[in-house]
Design a protein that fits this description.
Blueprint: E1 7-8, E2 29-30, H1 34-37, H2 41-56, E3 66-69, H3 73-81, E4 89-92
Amino acid sequence: MKPENVIDFNGEFRVVPELCDAGAQGPPVTRPSIAHYTANRTEYEAAAKNLFASMEAGMVRASRIATYPLRDACRAHEDLEARRTTGSVVLLP
């Protein structure tokens, strides 16, 4: 089966949809990653160049990185679970 013949689920879901019960008979079910969009290094480098050009033009922004002191790891986990964060979360020593 070609890589484009898969069912992609984007975003987060806590319950696997019934479609995933298709088993071996159905198409593969996956969550897409960069490997699904770039088949080789040339495509990967072109995609990266396009992304950084879009960032320089102000069309795309990097998400804010949330930082927490290591002593506040519990609060960081609570914020993650409550979906009060977006992007990366980093614990600092």
